[in-house]
């Protein structure tokens, strides 16, 4: 990919920090992700919750301490930055996220179980506060992706070291318990596969840079591939290959045709559905060809039940996280057939968006996703490599939500990753478009001589 030079005027550049090597506003979001991807799973690994749905309903002491404390620190630091005159940008993807999340908060008023909806809304508010607010106010030269990759690298290494322990996910088939995949320090093999696939994507991005970054990226990529195969997560493997290729195709086509990447991606997705309908080649058939199971391991049964419940409250839904895991009198228990009663969600983020917030909520979610892709497209004017990895990770999470529920799930690793990708793209929204030095005319270069020209080499800390 091309190497871009960054040309910034002295008025546009963020003030340099004279105290310390790190920007605290960049550290806070990375710390939030470190807790979700490393600290919390390791605590659960050492001190497991109760088995079954009861464990999912338990309120953990560490969460009640960590997230309020981190959110409070984020608010204090943000207030100090704003008091010093730093402006808080409002890119369209952040605005649409706030609107979508605002609807979730308003749904407490009509939720099936308002007390559950309110508590879970507050939890999500703390996570978003800890990630979005300080990241938007961080120094432009602070690299959130490097911090996130460091967490993935540590997690991948730990999970590889745990392989001899044989920590596996077991499923009951009849009277027998069957090992269905390695889970590492996570609570399930699909969570490990999801984590390893994201680690692989970020590792490939590191391979685009020379020196130690490339070497570390190669080692983590190798470990991630091993973990994906050991976890037997076919979805994670497929999307880890599909997402970066589709992101590359989208960005290259957009640049060649001088179109917004979001339009190119929309055409690609629409073409897939049209061709699939005409050829009778749907996702069920693809699943059968790849895995021999067109039901997506029973998910179609869950989706059929979800559709019946969506039809009961189609406009605004049952309330934010107020359908599954809300007690014995919940519709997910009283009306669900057989084993579906034991499900924690629909195993589809888009179905759950409709279940919780209706078609209005699904519309707000789609607007959020579209604006996020649009803002990522703007990153391409500054850094093509960064635009590619941001779009790759975003597409991975979007596609993964067709088989798992991740949207607005406060402590989920992939949701925190998606929020970080969203806010990382948003940090580029108001920067001036950059160009290659060779494309600048002599007159432009003479005018630009009064500006500071530095190579874009982002770090988690601030250059001093």
TrEMBL record:
Keyword Cell division attributed: no
Domain O-antigen ligase-related: 220-365
InterPro entries: O-antigen_ligase-rel_domated (IPR007016), WaaL-like (IPR051533)
One matching Pfam family: Wzy_C
Annotated GO MF terms: ligase activity
Signal peptide location: none
Protein's membrane topology: Multi-pass membrane protein
Main location, first listed in the record: membrane
Keywords: Ligase, Membrane, Transmembrane, Transmembrane helix
Transmembrane spans: 21-45, 65-82, 94-112, 118-137, 149-170, 190-208, 215-231, 237-257, 262-281, 357-376, 388-407
Places the protein is found: Membrane
The protein, known as: O-antigen ligase family protein
């Amino acid at each position: 990919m091309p190497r871009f030079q960054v040309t910034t005027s002295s008025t546009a550049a963020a003030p340099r920090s004279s105290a310390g090597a790190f920007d605290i506003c960049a550290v806070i979001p990375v710390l939030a992700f470190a807790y979700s991807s490393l600290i919390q799973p390791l605590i659960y690994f050492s001190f497991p919750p109760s088995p079954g749905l009861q464990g999912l309903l338990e309120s953990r002491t560490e969460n009640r301490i960590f997230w309020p404390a981190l959110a409070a620190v984020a608010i204090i630091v943000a207030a100090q930055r704003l008091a010093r005159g730093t402006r808080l940008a409002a890119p369209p993807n952040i605005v649409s996220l706030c609107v979508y999340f605002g609807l979730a908060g308003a749904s407490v008023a009509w939720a099936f179980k308002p007390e559950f909806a309110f508590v879970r809304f507050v939890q999500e508010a703390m996570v978003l506060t800890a990630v979005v607010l300080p990241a938007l106010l961080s120094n432009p030269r602070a690299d959130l992706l490097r911090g996130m990759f460091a967490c993935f690298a540590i997690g991948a290494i730990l999970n590889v070291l745990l392989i001899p322990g044989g920590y596996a996910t077991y499923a009951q088939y009849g009277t027998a318990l069957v090992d269905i995949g390695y889970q590492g320090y996570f609570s399930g093999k699909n969570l490990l596969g999801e984590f390893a696939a994201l680690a692989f994507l970020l590792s490939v991005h590191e391979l685009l840079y020379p020196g130690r970054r490339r070497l570390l990226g190669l080692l983590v990529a190798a470990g991630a591939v091993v973990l994906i195969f050991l976890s037997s997560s076919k979805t994670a493997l497929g999307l880890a290959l599909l997402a970066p290729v589709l992101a590359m195709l989208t960005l290259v086509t957009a640049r060649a045709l001088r179109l917004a990447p979001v339009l190119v991606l929309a055409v690609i997705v629409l073409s897939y559905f049209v061709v699939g309908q005409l050829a009778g080649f749907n996702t069920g058939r693809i699943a059968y060809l790849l895995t021999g199971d067109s039901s997506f391991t029973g998910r179609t049964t869950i989706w059929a039940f979800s559709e019946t419940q969506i039809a009961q409250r189609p406009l605004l839904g049952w309330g934010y996280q107020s359908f599954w895991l809300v007690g014995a009198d919940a519709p997910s228990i009283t009306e669900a057939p057989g084993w579906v009663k034991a499900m924690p969600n629909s195993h589809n983020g888009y179905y759950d968006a409709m279940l919780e917030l209706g078609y209005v909520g699904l519309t707000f979610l789609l607007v959020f996703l579209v604006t996020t892709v649009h803002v990522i497209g703007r990153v391409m004017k500054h850094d093509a490599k960064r635009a590619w990895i941001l779009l790759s990770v975003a597409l991975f999470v979007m596609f993964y939500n067709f088989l798992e529920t991740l949207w607005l799930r406060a402590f989920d690793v992939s949701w925190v990753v998606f929020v970080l990708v969203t806010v990382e793209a948003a940090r580029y929204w108001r920067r001036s478009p950059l160009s290659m030095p060779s494309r600048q005319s002599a007159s432009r270069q003479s005018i630009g001589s009064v500006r500071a020209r530095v190579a874009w080499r982002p770090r988690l800390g601030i250059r001093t």
